[in-house]
Design goal:
The structure holds two protein chains of two kinds.
Chain A (H helix, E strand, L loop, with lengths): L12 E8 L7 E7 L2 E2 L8 H10 L9 H50 L5 H32 L5 E4 H11 L1 H7 L2 E4 L4 E4 L1 H17 L7 E9 L2 E8 L31 H11 L4 E5 L5 E8 L7
Parallel strand pairs in A: 5-7
Antiparallel strand pairs in A: 1-2, 2-3, 4-6, 7-8, 8-10, 9-10
Chain B lengths: L10 E5 L3 H11 L7 E5 L2 H8 L13 E4 L7 H10 L9 E5 L4 H9 L4 E4 L4 H18 L19
Parallel strand pairs in B: 1-2, 1-3, 3-4, 4-5
The chains are: A alpha+beta, B alpha/beta.
């Protein structure tokens, strides 16, 4: 359906919104005219391609047909708003769930403490199931909150020393490291511009995964960072159970788990949070791994702008 | 180790609209050496009546410590806090802001309004118990509180709620 641009102001780029396809496909197909001529080359572009194309041709928004411009602005605004609403919803839902859940968790614990062995023989088990479920749900809600906070807190980025972040993460994971006899080696890490809480979460999730999915031996984990153009590439490597090729993408999806809860505890949010953090800085995260040969999680983050030192 | 000196029980007022939390606070303090008397009110108006010893609280004893849930209905916990801290007498009573969660802004605001400390209600029973016991231990075992007027001595003839 043609929805845009009927008037023909001279020397203005006309942008025609031709059709909107179904879900899963490029939502929008654009066709362009300039000076009454259909532009050469592929006339159909996704909005992203169109933006790239316009930038490459140095055609600024002022040159766009006013109605096309309004349409683009409206779509962008709509997208930002629905994103924001969704984040708000996730935050409020998880935040407000915590309070009633705290009641369930504390009172099942109180029941367990006061009445252990005093009721009939099934009761201890039933109370344990209830209490365990409440604890798991608390962990889940905490992770959902962490996830919804990645973008929403509007904390300005600051210079964060990767080494300091790592020291704090290792302190937080001290129990897990001690109990698994893990050896964690950390190279020198750069200073980057980011939100410190986000970075803590990112490293903590990756390192605790490296320890959790260990093989039979005490786990060895190493963390390194190398410059890669305008980015830093960080790697967290382990010698754990590894991941089959077909799951290399899926593990980053929310609630995606490859193991049962009895094999490895967890709620399937850790790597989804990592991906959200990395992508919020325009970086990428990926894994290199084979079953039985350990895993290396790589991610990129923008380097701190050059500073006189 | 010598015997601890005989402890004069102190008065704690818990202001919380969740009876389950009031129960948890009572349970936490049920068997401590301080034998504090725990009273409770569930809204801001009753809390203020209690603190001013007005209405049905005329014969109560002014508390030595207030444990205040800031998330009372309509944010009235903050109201209780600021009214207490702007009152020449009531401001001497230490107030522990005790809420299930607080944004950084809420916490900053509580300290600005004069909260003596902010403690988040732990979601785990054992940690909840130890947090409340630590509050009691600190304020009654270590901190030195203003001397109570003699006519303010507890008589324990009346226990509110």
């Amino acid at each position: 359906m043609a929805t845009v641009a009927t008037a023909k102001p001279e020397n203005k780029l006309r942008l025609l919104l031709l059709e909107e396809k179904g879900a899963g496909q490029d939502p929008t197909v654009w066709e362009m005219e300039y000076d009454g001529q259909t532009l050469p080359g592929d006339p159909r572009h996704s909005p992203e391609k169109l933006h790239e194309w316009l930038a490459a041709k140095k055609i600024g928004p002022a040159e766009l047909h006013p109605r096309a411009r309004a349409e683009m602005a409206r779509k962008l605004e709509e997208l930002a708003r629905s994103n924001h609403d969704l984040e708000q919803f996730a935050y409020i839902a998880s935040h407000d769930l915590r309070e009633p859940l705290r009641m369930v968790a504390t009172y099942t614990q109180l029941l367990a403490e006061r009445y252990r062995g005093k009721l009939d023989k099934n009761s201890d088990q039933y109370i344990h199931y209830a209490s365990d479920g409440a604890l798991r749900m608390q962990a889940l809600i905490q992770d959902l909150l962490a996830m919804s906070r990645v973008n929403s807190e509007n904390v300005p980025d600051q210079s964060v020393d990767g080494n300091g972040v790592m020291a704090e993460v290792l302190r937080d994971l001290e129990t897990a490291i001690r109990e698994s006899n893990a050896v964690v080696q950390c190279g020198k890490l750069p200073v980057i511009r980011a939100n410190r809480a986000n970075l803590l979460q990112l490293f903590q999730n990756l390192i605790s995964n490296a320890i959790k999915f260990r093989g039979k031996e005490a786990p060895k984990v190493s963390i390194t960072a190398v410059p890669a153009g305008p980015l830093w590439q960080f790697s967290v490597s382990d010698d754990g159970i590894g991941i089959a090729r077909e799951s290399h993408e899926a593990i980053f999806a929310i609630f995606q788990r490859l193991h049962t809860r009895t094999e490895y505890p967890g709620n399937g949010l850790g790597l989804a949070i990592c991906r959200k953090v990395v992508e919020s800085y325009g970086g990428k995260i990926w894994v290199e791994s084979r079953p039985g040969s350990g895993s290396t999680f790589n991610f990129t983050l923008p380097a701190q702008e050059a500073q006189a030192s | 180790m010598s015997e601890p000196p005989e402890i004069q029980p102190r008065e704690i007022l818990v202001v919380d609209d969740n009876p389950a939390d009031v129960t948890l606070v009572r349970e936490s303090l049920a068997e401590t050496v301080y034998q504090s008397h725990v009273h409770s009110t569930s809204d801001a108006n009753h809390a203020l009546e209690y603190l001013h010893q007005r209405g049905k609280y005329r014969t109560t004893v002014r508390p030595d410590l207030v444990i205040l849930d800031l998330n009372l209905a309509e944010r009235n916990g903050h109201k209780v806090l600021s009214l207490m801290k702007s009152d020449a007498e009531l401001r001497q009573i230490p107030v522990v802001a005790f809420s299930s969660s607080g944004s950084a802004a809420d916490i900053a605001r509580s300290y600005e309004a004069g909260a003596n400390c902010c403690v988040t209600k732990p979601a785990d029973l054992k940690r909840f118990f130890s947090a409340v016991r630590a509050i009691e231990e600190f304020w009654f075992g270590y901190a030195v509180l203003p001397r109570r007027e003699s006519n303010d001595r507890p008589t324990y003839t009346h226990s509110a709620d």
